[in-house]
Amino acid sequence: MISNEVYLVLFFALLPVCSGATATIPIKRTTIRFKFDDWQLYNEYAGAFQQPEAGHQHPLSRHDQSTFYHILYTTSIAIGNPPQPFTASIDLSWSDMFVPSVECLQDPVTAQYCRGQNKYNSSLSTTYHPSKTVTELMYEGLSTSGYLSQDVLGVGGLVILDQQFEEATFWRSMYLNAAPLDSALGLARLQSRTPASNASTKSALRNMLDQKVLSRPVFSLRLPRRDDESGELALGYSPLEVLAQSAVTLPLIEATPPKELSQLSYYISSGYTVALESVTIQSSPGNNPGGRKPSTYKAVFTNSFDYISLPGTLLTEIQTNLHPNLGMDDQLADLDCSMRDDLPNIVFSFGKNAVIVLTPWDYLTEVRDVEKGMRCVLPFAYLQQADDEWVVLGSAFMEGVYSVFDLEKGEVSLLMLKE
Protein backbone atom coordinates (compact mmCIF):
# COMPACT_ATOMS: atom_id res chain seq x y z
CA MET A 1 0.00 0.00 0.00
CA ILE A 2 1.29 3.47 -0.93
CA SER A 3 1.45 5.92 1.96
CA ASN A 4 -0.14 9.36 1.93
CA GLU A 5 3.34 10.91 1.89
CA VAL A 6 4.20 9.04 -1.30
CA TYR A 7 0.93 10.14 -2.84
CA LEU A 8 1.79 13.76 -2.13
CA VAL A 9 5.19 13.33 -3.79
CA LEU A 10 3.43 11.91 -6.85
CA PHE A 11 0.99 14.81 -6.68
CA PHE A 12 3.82 17.29 -7.24
CA ALA A 13 5.47 15.13 -9.90
CA LEU A 14 2.35 14.85 -12.04
CA LEU A 15 1.56 18.57 -12.11
CA PRO A 16 3.50 21.35 -13.93
CA VAL A 17 6.85 22.26 -12.47
CA CYS A 18 6.90 24.96 -9.80
CA SER A 19 9.59 26.50 -7.67
CA GLY A 20 8.85 27.22 -4.00
CA ALA A 21 5.59 29.12 -3.67
CA THR A 22 5.32 29.99 -7.34
CA ALA A 23 3.93 28.12 -10.31
CA THR A 24 3.86 28.50 -14.07
CA ILE A 25 0.79 26.90 -15.60
CA PRO A 26 0.10 26.39 -19.32
CA ILE A 27 -3.18 27.69 -20.73
CA LYS A 28 -5.00 25.98 -23.58
CA ARG A 29 -7.35 27.96 -25.85
CA THR A 30 -10.44 26.30 -27.32
CA THR A 31 -12.90 27.94 -29.71
CA ILE A 32 -16.51 26.84 -29.27
CA ARG A 33 -18.68 27.38 -32.34
CA PHE A 34 -22.41 27.90 -31.89
CA LYS A 35 -25.30 28.20 -34.28
CA PHE A 36 -28.11 30.54 -33.30
CA ASP A 37 -30.35 27.73 -32.08
CA ASP A 38 -27.52 26.64 -29.79
CA TRP A 39 -27.44 30.13 -28.27
CA GLN A 40 -31.13 29.80 -27.37
CA LEU A 41 -30.20 26.50 -25.69
CA TYR A 42 -27.28 28.24 -23.97
CA ASN A 43 -29.67 30.81 -22.50
CA GLU A 44 -32.00 28.07 -21.31
CA TYR A 45 -29.42 25.87 -19.61
CA ALA A 46 -26.51 28.22 -18.83
CA GLY A 47 -28.61 31.11 -17.58
CA ALA A 48 -29.29 34.38 -19.35
CA PHE A 49 -28.39 37.28 -17.07
CA GLN A 50 -30.74 39.68 -18.80
CA GLN A 51 -32.79 40.39 -21.89
CA PRO A 52 -31.77 43.35 -24.09
CA GLU A 53 -33.84 46.49 -23.88
CA ALA A 54 -35.84 47.58 -26.89
CA GLY A 55 -33.53 49.16 -29.44
CA HIS A 56 -30.46 47.17 -28.34
CA GLN A 57 -29.42 43.92 -29.97
CA HIS A 58 -28.21 41.13 -27.74
CA PRO A 59 -24.39 41.39 -27.63
CA LEU A 60 -24.04 37.81 -28.83
CA SER A 61 -26.34 37.78 -31.83
CA ARG A 62 -26.55 39.57 -35.13
CA HIS A 63 -29.77 39.65 -37.15
CA ASP A 64 -28.15 38.26 -40.31
CA GLN A 65 -25.61 35.95 -38.72
CA SER A 66 -26.45 32.61 -37.14
CA THR A 67 -22.91 31.56 -36.22
CA PHE A 68 -20.95 32.92 -33.28
CA TYR A 69 -17.99 31.83 -31.18
CA HIS A 70 -16.95 31.56 -27.57
CA ILE A 71 -13.37 31.20 -26.33
CA LEU A 72 -12.43 28.99 -23.38
CA TYR A 73 -9.06 29.10 -21.61
CA THR A 74 -8.35 25.93 -19.67
CA THR A 75 -5.65 24.23 -17.61
CA SER A 76 -5.19 21.10 -15.50
CA ILE A 77 -5.96 20.94 -11.78
CA ALA A 78 -6.29 18.09 -9.29
CA ILE A 79 -8.51 17.53 -6.25
CA GLY A 80 -8.04 15.02 -3.45
CA ASN A 81 -5.30 12.78 -2.10
CA PRO A 82 -4.36 10.87 -4.19
CA PRO A 83 -5.01 13.56 -6.81
CA GLN A 84 -7.94 13.23 -9.19
CA PRO A 85 -7.38 15.22 -12.42
CA PHE A 86 -9.77 17.77 -13.94
CA THR A 87 -9.81 20.33 -16.73
CA ALA A 88 -10.69 23.79 -15.40
CA SER A 89 -11.37 27.06 -17.15
CA ILE A 90 -9.22 29.97 -15.99
CA ASP A 91 -11.60 32.79 -15.11
CA LEU A 92 -10.81 36.27 -13.75
CA SER A 93 -14.44 36.87 -12.81
CA TRP A 94 -15.48 33.58 -11.21
CA SER A 95 -15.30 32.41 -7.59
CA ASP A 96 -17.07 29.07 -7.06
CA MET A 97 -15.32 25.79 -7.78
CA PHE A 98 -17.27 22.73 -8.91
CA VAL A 99 -16.61 19.26 -10.32
CA PRO A 100 -18.92 16.45 -11.47
CA SER A 101 -19.39 13.70 -8.91
CA VAL A 102 -19.36 9.99 -9.69
CA GLU A 103 -22.90 10.12 -8.32
CA CYS A 104 -24.00 11.87 -11.50
CA LEU A 105 -23.96 8.47 -13.19
CA GLN A 106 -26.79 7.21 -10.98
CA ASP A 107 -29.43 9.19 -12.87
CA PRO A 108 -29.86 8.03 -16.51
CA VAL A 109 -30.70 11.54 -17.77
CA THR A 110 -27.76 13.20 -16.01
CA ALA A 111 -25.44 10.31 -16.89
CA GLN A 112 -25.60 11.06 -20.62
CA TYR A 113 -24.12 14.50 -19.98
CA CYS A 114 -21.51 13.67 -17.35
CA ARG A 115 -20.32 10.29 -18.64
CA GLY A 116 -17.51 11.83 -20.69
CA GLN A 117 -16.28 14.12 -17.88
CA ASN A 118 -13.61 13.54 -15.26
CA LYS A 119 -15.53 12.78 -12.07
CA TYR A 120 -14.71 13.23 -8.39
CA ASN A 121 -14.94 10.18 -6.13
CA SER A 122 -14.83 11.28 -2.49
CA SER A 123 -14.42 7.71 -1.28
CA LEU A 124 -10.97 7.58 -2.94
CA SER A 125 -9.61 10.68 -1.17
CA THR A 126 -8.09 10.55 2.30
CA THR A 127 -8.45 14.34 2.69
CA TYR A 128 -12.15 14.64 1.82
CA HIS A 129 -14.48 16.45 4.23
CA PRO A 130 -18.24 16.44 3.61
CA SER A 131 -20.50 19.45 4.05
CA LYS A 132 -23.73 18.41 2.34
CA THR A 133 -24.90 22.02 1.93
CA VAL A 134 -27.16 21.92 -1.13
CA THR A 135 -25.94 24.02 -4.08
CA GLU A 136 -26.72 24.82 -7.68
CA LEU A 137 -24.94 26.87 -10.31
CA MET A 138 -24.78 27.68 -14.01
CA TYR A 139 -21.51 28.25 -15.82
CA GLU A 140 -20.24 28.18 -19.44
CA GLY A 141 -23.04 26.09 -20.89
CA LEU A 142 -23.35 23.92 -17.77
CA SER A 143 -26.21 23.69 -15.30
CA THR A 144 -25.35 21.76 -12.15
CA SER A 145 -26.56 21.03 -8.65
CA GLY A 146 -25.21 18.98 -5.76
CA TYR A 147 -23.65 19.75 -2.40
CA LEU A 148 -20.58 21.38 -0.97
CA SER A 149 -17.52 19.26 -0.30
CA GLN A 150 -14.01 20.11 0.86
CA ASP A 151 -10.67 18.67 -0.18
CA VAL A 152 -7.08 19.46 -1.16
CA LEU A 153 -6.70 21.38 -4.42
CA GLY A 154 -3.57 21.09 -6.56
CA VAL A 155 -2.71 23.84 -9.04
CA GLY A 156 0.61 23.75 -10.84
CA GLY A 157 2.30 21.92 -7.96
CA LEU A 158 0.88 24.30 -5.35
CA VAL A 159 -1.32 22.72 -2.69
CA ILE A 160 -4.35 24.60 -1.37
CA LEU A 161 -5.92 23.04 1.70
CA ASP A 162 -9.63 22.87 2.51
CA GLN A 163 -10.87 24.11 -0.84
CA GLN A 164 -14.66 24.11 -0.92
CA PHE A 165 -16.34 23.11 -4.15
CA GLU A 166 -19.66 21.90 -5.45
CA GLU A 167 -19.71 18.14 -5.90
CA ALA A 168 -22.24 18.06 -8.72
CA THR A 169 -24.61 15.12 -8.69
CA PHE A 170 -26.75 16.76 -11.41
CA TRP A 171 -24.86 17.79 -14.54
CA ARG A 172 -26.63 19.21 -17.59
CA SER A 173 -24.64 20.42 -20.57
CA MET A 174 -25.48 22.22 -23.80
CA TYR A 175 -22.56 20.49 -25.52
CA LEU A 176 -23.35 17.60 -27.83
CA ASN A 177 -20.38 15.60 -26.61
CA ALA A 178 -18.44 15.91 -23.36
CA ALA A 179 -18.11 19.49 -22.15
CA PRO A 180 -14.59 20.91 -22.72
CA LEU A 181 -14.27 21.65 -18.99
CA ASP A 182 -14.95 19.90 -15.68
CA SER A 183 -14.43 22.86 -13.38
CA ALA A 184 -13.40 26.51 -13.07
CA LEU A 185 -10.26 27.93 -11.50
CA GLY A 186 -11.60 31.21 -10.12
CA LEU A 187 -9.21 34.17 -10.01
CA ALA A 188 -11.72 36.69 -8.66
CA ARG A 189 -10.09 39.11 -6.20
CA LEU A 190 -13.43 39.64 -4.43
CA GLN A 191 -16.42 37.36 -4.06
CA SER A 192 -18.07 37.53 -7.46
CA ARG A 193 -21.74 38.42 -7.40
CA THR A 194 -23.73 36.25 -9.76
CA PRO A 195 -27.32 35.05 -9.89
CA ALA A 196 -26.06 31.86 -11.47
CA SER A 197 -24.72 30.29 -8.24
CA ASN A 198 -25.71 30.00 -4.60
CA ALA A 199 -22.52 28.26 -3.47
CA SER A 200 -20.70 31.47 -2.39
CA THR A 201 -17.36 29.75 -1.83
CA LYS A 202 -13.94 31.40 -1.82
CA SER A 203 -12.19 31.44 -5.15
CA ALA A 204 -9.07 29.32 -5.53
CA LEU A 205 -7.04 32.54 -5.71
CA ARG A 206 -8.60 33.87 -2.50
CA ASN A 207 -7.67 30.66 -0.69
CA MET A 208 -4.10 30.85 -2.01
CA LEU A 209 -3.83 34.37 -0.60
CA ASP A 210 -5.47 33.59 2.74
CA GLN A 211 -3.28 30.50 3.24
CA LYS A 212 -0.17 32.41 2.09
CA VAL A 213 0.58 29.73 -0.46
CA LEU A 214 2.12 32.22 -2.90
CA SER A 215 5.49 33.85 -2.36
CA ARG A 216 3.84 37.14 -3.35
CA PRO A 217 0.17 38.03 -3.85
CA VAL A 218 0.60 38.50 -7.58
CA PHE A 219 -0.28 36.63 -10.75
CA SER A 220 0.09 37.29 -14.46
CA LEU A 221 -1.77 36.19 -17.56
CA ARG A 222 -0.70 35.71 -21.14
CA LEU A 223 -3.73 34.41 -22.99
CA PRO A 224 -3.12 32.49 -26.23
CA ARG A 225 -4.42 34.25 -29.35
CA ARG A 226 -5.03 31.08 -31.37
CA ASP A 227 -6.12 27.56 -30.55
CA ASP A 228 -2.75 26.18 -31.61
CA GLU A 229 -0.86 28.48 -29.19
CA SER A 230 -0.18 27.93 -25.50
CA GLY A 231 -0.67 30.69 -22.96
CA GLU A 232 0.62 31.05 -19.41
CA LEU A 233 -0.66 31.74 -15.92
CA ALA A 234 2.15 32.69 -13.52
CA LEU A 235 1.20 32.46 -9.83
CA GLY A 236 3.22 34.19 -7.10
CA TYR A 237 5.60 36.11 -9.37
CA SER A 238 5.93 38.27 -12.46
CA PRO A 239 8.26 37.05 -15.23
CA LEU A 240 11.44 39.18 -15.29
CA GLU A 241 11.23 39.81 -19.01
CA VAL A 242 7.86 41.51 -18.47
CA LEU A 243 9.08 43.69 -15.60
CA ALA A 244 12.13 44.72 -17.59
CA GLN A 245 9.97 46.22 -20.34
CA SER A 246 7.87 49.35 -20.45
CA ALA A 247 4.47 48.44 -19.04
CA VAL A 248 1.45 50.59 -18.27
CA THR A 249 0.70 50.33 -14.53
CA LEU A 250 -2.76 51.27 -13.27
CA PRO A 251 -4.25 51.40 -9.77
CA LEU A 252 -7.27 49.20 -9.15
CA ILE A 253 -10.22 51.27 -7.96
CA GLU A 254 -13.13 50.33 -5.76
CA ALA A 255 -16.30 49.99 -7.78
CA THR A 256 -19.82 49.25 -6.59
CA PRO A 257 -21.74 46.99 -8.97
CA PRO A 258 -25.26 48.04 -9.95
CA LYS A 259 -27.87 46.71 -7.53
CA GLU A 260 -29.61 44.66 -10.18
CA LEU A 261 -27.97 41.33 -10.90
CA SER A 262 -26.68 41.42 -14.45
CA GLN A 263 -23.83 40.28 -16.61
CA LEU A 264 -22.15 43.64 -16.09
CA SER A 265 -22.53 43.63 -12.29
CA TYR A 266 -21.05 40.12 -12.23
CA TYR A 267 -17.88 41.28 -14.00
CA ILE A 268 -17.59 44.39 -11.81
CA SER A 269 -17.97 42.43 -8.57
CA SER A 270 -14.80 40.37 -9.15
CA GLY A 271 -12.63 43.39 -8.22
CA TYR A 272 -10.61 44.25 -11.34
CA THR A 273 -11.69 47.79 -12.22
CA VAL A 274 -9.54 50.75 -13.36
CA ALA A 275 -10.20 54.28 -14.61
CA LEU A 276 -10.22 54.74 -18.39
CA GLU A 277 -10.14 58.16 -20.06
CA SER A 278 -10.99 57.31 -23.65
CA VAL A 279 -11.26 54.74 -26.40
CA THR A 280 -10.45 56.14 -29.83
CA ILE A 281 -9.58 55.16 -33.36
CA GLN A 282 -5.96 55.96 -34.12
CA SER A 283 -5.99 58.51 -36.92
CA SER A 284 -4.57 61.84 -37.99
CA PRO A 285 -4.94 64.83 -35.60
CA GLY A 286 -8.33 66.53 -35.86
CA ASN A 287 -9.99 63.36 -37.16
CA ASN A 288 -10.40 61.18 -34.11
CA PRO A 289 -13.75 59.33 -34.06
CA GLY A 290 -14.60 58.06 -30.62
CA GLY A 291 -12.53 60.74 -28.94
CA ARG A 292 -14.37 63.97 -29.65
CA LYS A 293 -15.73 64.20 -26.13
CA PRO A 294 -13.06 63.26 -23.59
CA SER A 295 -14.66 61.47 -20.68
CA THR A 296 -13.81 59.18 -17.82
CA TYR A 297 -15.06 55.63 -17.85
CA LYS A 298 -14.67 52.70 -15.52
CA ALA A 299 -13.12 49.67 -17.19
CA VAL A 300 -13.31 46.14 -15.86
CA PHE A 301 -10.99 43.30 -16.90
CA THR A 302 -12.41 39.85 -17.55
CA ASN A 303 -11.72 36.88 -19.79
CA SER A 304 -15.25 35.51 -19.27
CA PHE A 305 -16.58 37.93 -21.88
CA ASP A 306 -15.26 37.40 -25.39
CA TYR A 307 -15.66 40.97 -26.56
CA ILE A 308 -15.09 44.63 -25.69
CA SER A 309 -18.28 46.23 -24.40
CA LEU A 310 -18.60 50.00 -24.86
CA PRO A 311 -21.26 52.51 -23.76
CA GLY A 312 -23.90 53.02 -26.47
CA THR A 313 -22.70 56.32 -27.91
CA LEU A 314 -19.06 55.30 -27.88
CA LEU A 315 -19.92 51.96 -29.49
CA THR A 316 -21.68 53.74 -32.36
CA GLU A 317 -18.73 56.11 -32.92
CA ILE A 318 -16.19 53.30 -33.00
CA GLN A 319 -18.24 50.75 -34.95
CA THR A 320 -19.31 53.16 -37.71
CA ASN A 321 -15.81 54.55 -38.30
CA LEU A 322 -13.84 51.31 -38.52
CA HIS A 323 -14.25 50.84 -42.27
CA PRO A 324 -16.42 52.30 -45.07
CA ASN A 325 -18.08 48.93 -45.59
CA LEU A 326 -18.83 48.25 -41.91
CA GLY A 327 -21.65 49.66 -39.80
CA MET A 328 -23.83 48.93 -36.80
CA ASP A 329 -25.36 45.89 -38.49
CA ASP A 330 -21.90 44.33 -38.53
CA GLN A 331 -21.47 44.10 -34.76
CA LEU A 332 -19.61 40.89 -33.88
CA ALA A 333 -19.44 39.87 -37.52
CA ASP A 334 -16.86 37.27 -38.43
CA LEU A 335 -14.78 38.76 -41.23
CA ASP A 336 -12.27 37.45 -43.70
CA CYS A 337 -8.99 37.90 -41.84
CA SER A 338 -7.47 39.70 -44.83
CA MET A 339 -9.48 42.75 -43.65
CA ARG A 340 -6.98 43.23 -40.85
CA ASP A 341 -4.85 45.14 -43.35
CA ASP A 342 -7.65 47.68 -43.83
CA LEU A 343 -8.78 48.29 -40.25
CA PRO A 344 -7.38 50.93 -37.86
CA ASN A 345 -5.64 50.62 -34.52
CA ILE A 346 -7.71 51.24 -31.39
CA VAL A 347 -6.24 53.43 -28.64
CA PHE A 348 -7.15 52.89 -24.98
CA SER A 349 -6.00 55.86 -22.91
CA PHE A 350 -5.90 55.23 -19.16
CA GLY A 351 -4.20 58.54 -18.36
CA LYS A 352 -1.05 60.50 -19.12
CA ASN A 353 1.64 58.19 -20.53
CA ALA A 354 -0.69 55.24 -19.87
CA VAL A 355 -1.80 54.20 -23.33
CA ILE A 356 -2.41 50.79 -24.88
CA VAL A 357 -2.66 50.62 -28.68
CA LEU A 358 -4.19 47.46 -30.10
CA THR A 359 -3.80 46.62 -33.78
CA PRO A 360 -6.40 44.61 -35.73
CA TRP A 361 -4.13 41.61 -35.16
CA ASP A 362 -4.71 42.15 -31.43
CA TYR A 363 -8.39 43.05 -31.10
CA LEU A 364 -9.91 40.86 -33.81
CA THR A 365 -10.52 37.40 -32.36
CA GLU A 366 -9.08 34.76 -34.65
CA VAL A 367 -11.16 31.59 -34.94
CA ARG A 368 -11.18 28.62 -37.27
CA ASP A 369 -14.63 27.75 -38.58
CA VAL A 370 -15.31 24.25 -39.89
CA GLU A 371 -17.28 25.71 -42.81
CA LYS A 372 -15.64 29.10 -43.48
CA GLY A 373 -12.02 28.45 -42.54
CA MET A 374 -10.07 31.09 -40.61
CA ARG A 375 -12.20 34.08 -39.59
CA CYS A 376 -11.64 37.23 -37.55
CA VAL A 377 -14.45 38.39 -35.25
CA LEU A 378 -15.19 42.08 -34.62
CA PRO A 379 -15.19 42.52 -30.84
CA PHE A 380 -17.21 45.69 -30.15
CA ALA A 381 -20.43 45.04 -28.25
CA TYR A 382 -22.91 46.59 -25.83
CA LEU A 383 -23.85 45.35 -22.39
CA GLN A 384 -26.93 46.95 -20.87
CA GLN A 385 -26.11 49.64 -18.29
CA ALA A 386 -28.05 52.43 -16.64
CA ASP A 387 -25.17 54.90 -16.84
CA ASP A 388 -22.97 54.99 -19.91
CA GLU A 389 -19.76 54.79 -17.90
CA TRP A 390 -18.69 51.15 -18.10
CA VAL A 391 -16.26 49.54 -20.52
CA VAL A 392 -15.73 45.78 -20.30
CA LEU A 393 -12.27 44.74 -21.49
CA GLY A 394 -12.94 41.11 -22.32
CA SER A 395 -10.73 38.51 -23.93
CA ALA A 396 -10.53 40.47 -27.22
CA PHE A 397 -8.54 43.03 -25.21
CA MET A 398 -6.82 40.60 -22.85
CA GLU A 399 -5.37 38.52 -25.69
CA GLY A 400 -3.51 41.60 -26.92
CA VAL A 401 -1.65 42.31 -23.67
CA TYR A 402 0.41 40.61 -21.01
CA SER A 403 -1.35 41.45 -17.73
CA VAL A 404 0.15 41.40 -14.24
CA PHE A 405 -2.18 41.70 -11.24
CA ASP A 406 -0.35 42.80 -8.09
CA LEU A 407 -2.88 42.42 -5.29
CA GLU A 408 -0.44 43.62 -2.62
CA LYS A 409 0.00 46.97 -4.34
CA GLY A 410 -3.55 47.03 -5.69
CA GLU A 411 -2.53 47.58 -9.30
CA VAL A 412 -2.49 45.95 -12.72
CA SER A 413 0.31 46.29 -15.27
CA LEU A 414 -0.32 45.89 -19.00
CA LEU A 415 2.32 45.21 -21.62
CA MET A 416 1.46 45.23 -25.31
CA LEU A 417 2.37 41.95 -26.98
CA LYS A 418 4.39 41.75 -30.16
CA GLU A 419 4.13 39.07 -32.80
UniProtKB/TrEMBL annotation:
Which Gene3D superfamilies does this one have?
A: Acid Proteases
Q: Which GO terms describe its molecular function?
A: aspartic-type endopeptidase activity
* Keywords on record: Disulfide bond, Hydrolase, Signal
Q: Which GO terms describe its cellular component?
A: fungal-type vacuole
Which InterPro entries does UniProt cross-reference here?
Aspartic_peptidase_A1, Pepsin-like_dom, PEPTIDASE_A1, Peptidase_aspartic_dom_sf
Q: Which cysteines are joined by disulfide bonds?
A: 104-114, 337-376
Indicate whether rRNA processing appears among the record's keywords: no
An example GO BP is: proteolysis
* Source domain of life: Eukaryota
Q: Which residues form the signal peptide?
A: 1-20
User: Under which EC number(s) is this enzyme classified?
Assistant: 3.4.23.25
Ranges for domain Peptidase A1? 73-415
The keyword Hydrolase is assigned to this record: yes
**PROSITE patterns, sorted:** PEPTIDASE_A1
Family statement: Belongs to the peptidase A1 family.
Cited PANTHER family = BETA-SITE APP-CLEAVING ENZYME, ISOFORM A-RELATED
Question: What name has this protein been given in UniProt?
Answer: Aspartic proteinase
Q: Origin organism of this chain?
A: Neocucurbitaria cava
What is the primary gene name for this protein? APR1_3
